[in-house]
Amino acid sequence: MAYLFQQALNALQLGSIYALIALGYTMVYGILTMINFAHGDLFMVGAFFCFLLAVYLKLSFVPTLLFTILGVAMLGVVIERLAYKPLRNAPRVSAIITALGVGLFLENFTLALSPYPKHIPALIEHTTWTIGTVSISSLQILIIVLSLVLMLILDFIVQRTKAGMAMRAISWDKTIVPLMGVPVNKIISLTFAIGTGLGGAAGMMYGLAYPVIDPYMGIMVGWKAFISAVVGGIGNIRGAMIGGFILGAVEIMVAAFFPSTYRDFVAFTMLFILLIVRPYGILGKPHPQKV
Amino acid sequence: MSSFKAAYHTLLAHWHMLTGYKLFWPVFMIAGLAFCVAVDTYGFMDLYLQLILIYVGINIILTVSLNLINGYMGEFSVGHAGFMAVGAYVASLLTVHSFPAGAQNMLFPLAILAGGLGAAFVGFLVAIPSFKTRGDYLAIVTLAFCMIVKSVLENIDAVGGPRGLLGMEKLTSLPWVFFWTALSVWVIRNLVYSNFRRGVLSIREDEIASDLMSVNTRQVKIIAFVVSSFFAGIAGGLFAHALQFINPRMFDILKSTDILIMVYLGGIASISGSIIGAVIYTILLEILRPLGVWRMVFMPLTLVLLMIYRPRGIMGMKEARLFTPLRDITTEKLWRQKKKEAPDASA
Amino acid sequence: MPLLEISKLTHRFAGLCAVSDFNFVIEPHELVGVIGPNGAGKTTVFNLITGVYRASVGSIKLKDQELVGKTPHQITSLGIARTFQNIRLFKELSVLDNVRIAHYGQIAYTPAEALLHIGRFRAEEKRITNRALDLLAIFKLDESANEKAKNLSYGLQRRLEIARALATEPALLLLDEPAAGMNPNEIIQLMEFIRWIRQTFSVTIILIEHQMRLVMGICERLVVLDFGATIAQGLPSEIQKNPKVMEAYLGVEVAS
Questions:
Q1: CB-based contact (8 Å) between A91 and chain C?
Q2: How far apart are CA B161 and CA B156, in angstroms?
Q3: Chain C CB within 8 Å of residue A288 CB
Q4: Which chain C residues touch A288 with a CB distance below 8 Å?
Q5: What's the rounded Cα separation, in Å, for the pair C25 and C221?
Q6: In-domain check, residue B69
Q7: Cβ contact (<8 Å) for A291 and C13?
Q8: Min CA distance, B260 vs chain A (Å)?
Q9: Domains recognised in chain C with CATH numbers
Q10: Number of domains, chain B
Q11: Is B343 a member of any domain?
Q12: How do residues C154-182 score in pLDDT, each as one tens digit?
């Protein structure tokens, strides 16, 4: 029982990171119907920003977090403007390839600048409480609580503010809404800023939880987060959160009972089967084809 | 200036004469094969240069075959490296464990063929989800497939797990690469100039209308995936026996991206484009080798710029005359002839 | 024997009844119109016949052969071809290829023969190219055989779509709003054209249309749909006087 509780806690930690990244995929997909394959690498850039800020500028936790989010968000907006915007009316395949290219560029550029893995210093004091046989660390609590807070803020923005309304409107209809005076480019930039900012925050938290970072760390985590977004129904924000926690739980459970090398296999097989059986995810709706 | 132009036109005319000539391909094939055999036996070419030529050939096979799905059919598969892995592992397991040591050279084509067939079978399985899903989702399915192949290989100790497979003899020689490259280009060319071409192109344009115009879309998709993955498997087998060492990490998404770059650089839905793309990219990578890691920064940047400024690639949707069958050129003649006849019929 | 026999056909989209209890029989060589206000379920009927949607209830029989459960390309090969409300040509492909694609189901060579360009391949390719060119000549499209379909004018695109449908050698041709976007003059020409097609290719035609002038002018029989239900069937002159039809088109009748 205690073992199960311990695993559930681990699942919650991993799941909240997946969920944060998945939000970025899903928001961009919702607004541009484009899969931003570079998103996982922006998550990696987040971890490296955190490293730079913490090691060279010796900032403490809160400013590091704020500047990391800000920096990654700005990078996301720049990428959208330079690489994706010219392709908005191009075939969708072009946009996917471009995103793959941007991702590779970020990875290799980081690799060229920092050939060796880096170690992120502990920015908060480590305390571990032990209740029975279950041990809870302050970091775990921090990651889970912070993720939930960020998600609540996002949910508030999307559901209750004017900009959020515009986002939902654009993802609902891409031809009519721009004619209604909604500043589409601004909203798209904002979406990218929020989505990638959350990814950056996830990168930092991941870096705190697993302190050794390298330029390729974003690939696998990015794909996992992407799976979460698809599981929840891509384009659906609440779906992405649920999907993140589901995938986190599945992975921790697989690792608890099987050799940990089976984890990726199970995650991708899950995606494979889901795409065939229910391609629109748990909360998504199927799009009937019109003839 | 005008003399340049004149020279260019004469050259072009000569070129057209040459390519229009029925014997061009047979002569080219025999000469090419003879040259490769000569290089292989007498070894008058630098080994490094030979290796690059081998990679060029393998990359041509990979690019032409991926173009079938990504170019002609207009789908987006990122799983090509996965098919390649299947071919590489099947062929290597055969040569390392099953074949007697003395007969390696003779049985090598069988190993390559088996690799291709193995990959084709897996390609058939991946074709099934393509019945229902398209576009982004199909891209993810192929990606998931690529990752699954990698994780499965990493988890099977019998094939070396994450350490990979060793012990292949260097069986991939220039003549063999020439043979398989020519074969794959020829077969795919044939396929592309048949009913199948019209099938895939119509799926790319409008799948529902295509189905309603009597195109068996499922059959077309299966053929596309099976043929494409068959040749990816062939390329994998050749690759494994050129490098004499494989591990699962070689066939990850980065390898697929390499092939994608070659396809979109050379041009979608074009065989000549695929060859051009594979040749340019392979040679460029070698030339830029001194740049080290920065080379890998430069490459994705090229891809992004390519997508923004020339999304269809160098030869996008066009074909060099050399690769269109004579018959297809006669279609035009037929058309002109009919146009001439038409007034008589009405008179 | 009737050519097409539809009985008790019903189709629902997420609970909404798009077509309910549709019964319909058409004899060879008839020309029947299906009319009704927007959203009455006309195109859904076509989609059900051609297998784009699978009917929830009911049966569709072509010469006593059940079509429900068959895929669109099978149904097309059995002899039903159609055009689309919003033209769906293969825009980037040549006019010739648009028509050649429609011969797909008639090709006699196997994939293996295509792979190696052997056996029946050459003869078959020549045959369908010839047929396609002949068909284009009949439709006066042969001049632009090598143009991309998207470069044709709107009227020619409509014509090409009909040519493409006829290339599948149908017994039954379904035309979905062929007069959309045409002026009265063009509609008169179209009426002649449709009659001529029926004669030349000896096909049976079902026509969906909004343009009353066209429907009343050429159809021998009409079916009126409203909210998925059949509200009237009969001769054009009967339909014109039917109060239910007037109500569907003009709203609830005001007390005269």
A1: no
A2: 5
A3: yes
A4: 13
A5: 11
A6: yes
A7: no
A8: 8
A9: 1-79+170-256 (3.40.50.300), 89-153+160-167 (no CATH)
A10: 1
A11: no
A12: 989 999 999 999 999 999 999 999 988 88
Classify burial at A175, counting beta carbons within 10 Å of its beta carbon; exposed 0-12, middle 13-18, buried 19 or more: exposed
Tens-level pLDDT at each residue, chain A (291 residues): 778 888 888 899 999 999 999 999 999 988 888 889 899 999 999 999 999 999 999 888 999 999 999 999 999 999 999 999 998 888 777 888 889 889 999 999 999 998 889 998 888 888 888 887 888 888 899 999 999 999 999 999 998 999 998 988 888 887 788 888 888 899 999 999 999 999 999 999 999 998 899 999 998 899 889 889 888 888 888 899 999 999 999 888 888 888 877 888 888 888 878 877 777 778 877 665 555
Structural domains of chain A, ranges and CATH numbers in brackets: 2-277 (1.10.3470)
Helices B174-192 & B24-42, crossing angle to 10 degrees? 160
Name every chain B residue with its beta carbon within 8 A of the beta carbon of A276.
128-129, 132-133, 141
Domain of residue B299 covers 21-335
CB contact under 8 A, C73 and B187: no
Q: B329 pLDDT band (50/70/90 cuts)?
A: low
B11 in a structural domain: no
Q: Which of A146, A147, A164 minimizes the C-alpha distance to A155?
A: A164
Contact B118/C at CB under 8 A: no
Residue with tokens 């019903």: C10
Q: Which residue of C has its CA nearest to B327?
A: C122
Residues of chain B numbered 163-222 and touching chain C (CB < 8 Å): 187, 190-191, 193-196, 198-199, 201-202, 205-206, 208-219
* CB atoms near residue B98 (< 10 Å): 11
Residue showing tokens 């050519």: C3
CA angle C87, C88, C92 (to 5 degrees): 115
- Using CA atoms, how far apart are residues A259 and B54, in angstroms rounded to an integer? 39
Question: Could you report the predicted ipTM of this complex, rounded to two decimals?
Answer: 0.89
B191: which chain C residues are within 8 Å (Cβ-Cβ)? Answer: 114-115
What does the pLDDT look like over C31-71, one tens digit per residue?
Answer: 999 988 888 888 899 999 999 998 888 999 999 899 999 99
Q: Give the CATH number for residue B292.
A: 1.10.3470
Residues B107-129 as b or e (16 or more Cβ within 10 Å = b): bbeebbbbbbbbbbebbeebbeb
Q: Give the gap in angstroms from C-alpha B328 to the nearest C-alpha of chain A.
A: 29
Contact A90 B311 (CB under 8 A): yes
Q: Please tell me the distance in Å from C131's CA to the nearest CA on chain B.
A: 11
Total beta-carbon pairs less than 8 A apart between chain A and chain C: 5
Helix axes A184-209, A61-79, angle to 10 degrees: 140
